Amino acid sequence: MVAGRVAVGLMSLLVLTGAGVASTMLISLAGGLNTSDALDPSGPKSLGSDQNILLIGLDSRKDQDGNQLPKEVLDQLHAGDGSEGGYNTNTLILMHIPGNGGKVSAVSIPRDDYVPVQGIPGYTKVKIKEAYGLAKFCAEQNLAKQGITDKAELEHKGREAGRKKTLETVRNFLDVPIDRFAEINLAGFYDLATALGGVEVCLNHPVKDSYSGADFPAGHQTLNGAQALSFVRQRHGLDNGDLDRTHRQQAFIASAAHKLHSVGTFTDLGKLQDLIDTAKRDVVISSGWDILAFAQHAQNLTGGDLEFTTLPIAGYEKVNGQDVNKVDTDQVRAAVRVAFGLVAPAPVTPQIRASATVDVRNATGKSGLASTVATALAPYGFRTGQLANTAATASSIAYGAGEKDDAATAASLLGGLPIAADSRVPKGHLRITLGTGFSLPAALGPHGADAAPGTPAAAATSAGTASAAEPPPAAGPQGGTVDGSGIPCVN
């Protein structure tokens, strides 16, 4: 269930290399990191001096040899008794570092994206987070049949198989090269966050969640290692669940980079040594990665010239009893190319322009639906107001003074909901109630036939597939970009 730990691990590594740390310390770091041969050296490469780096966050409560973390560590992490987690890659972020020194772009792959997989017996598609653990299990079964029983050897070779399958699956899904990768597990996140001496984050709303241990007020606050883990683990109680948690990951990376770049961080030799020791203990990087040479490519990470995008999903469905994200592969690949600056985005000129603020009340019991509807209406000009759950009732739209036309537009987009004037609704507002049984019409989703003309959704429908120049869809639960230039506020 953990997310974001790899980001801090690699951010520490990247920022250390890019912030003018003494060469003797860099040499010490480069010589002591754990390395992996999972990345095929003959695979596709980025053009010129561009680099794509995959950050892998492994949801494991075990160390590199397969030993369970000590109970006192698990207690600090609020992460159960060690039996949870398995080997899911609950964080997958592909970071693009242009060779010309331009903006660094990172795309987050939602962990439940249902994607094709190759070479795993019994599976043709999996949640992308599962590729690592399934490949590891199969490899260990085969090794055991060959008579290999040493626990550490099985763990090491099993993890290598998991890394290879993850790299292959991500590369095939996104259709872009992967030049380097870094992996870190649960303990590594905690160690690195603690070594930073706390990281400032910002929340739009107060949160309290017993599953992750998150219990924070709204606004800016500094979190210690255990609190930071709760911050990036929380998904219960968030409107868009895992997708909102992805924004937490992104915000934490930005905040960690800000802290690493702050005055004093790199003049404190004790803190630097803690970061280096933690990286040596907890981070695994692809073999052949020349950390000293890479230093000159990492400058923008230290300056905050960094932007995050969450890749779009096409909806939700159940497969064998599991909730998965449906994806449109062409649309996802187009979003990656736009985010990485490989193509220019097409112009977006919606023709339907409403102006009302929508207050959405969710009576369906489906978590996050109010936010999903508000986000889906945004490309048409509707502004997002208050979002809340309410008791079971029928679907309807009530409108304030002067908003009858916008109410009719919203009603049509949402499948023909009844509308009525209501003096209790403020001027300029609509009160949309999502009654029992309501579901978002397919026409309003990322590929809807009724999408606003000129939007990515409409272009995808008319063309049959998303063109390579399309930007990510403006509407969708994945939300917008997260600015890595400071400390962004998130849900």
TrEMBL record:
InterPro entries documented for this protein: LytR/CpsA/Psr_C, LytR/CpsA/Psr_CW_biosynth, LytR_CpsA_psr
Organism: Amycolatopsis australiensis
Skewed-composition ranges (Low complexity): 447-469
Domain Cell envelope-related transcriptional attenuator: 88-261
Region: Disordered, residue numbers: 447-491
Taxonomic lineage: Bacteria, Bacillati, Actinomycetota, Actinomycetes, Pseudonocardiales
Gene3D superfamilies the UniProt entry points to: 3.30.70.2390, LCP protein
Pfam families (alphabetical): LytR_C (PF13399), LytR_cpsA_psr (PF03816)
Protein's UniProt name: Cell envelope-related function transcriptional attenuator common domain-containing protein
Family of this protein: Belongs to the LytR/CpsA/Psr (LCP) family.
Domain LytR/CpsA/Psr regulator C-terminal residues, every copy: 356-438
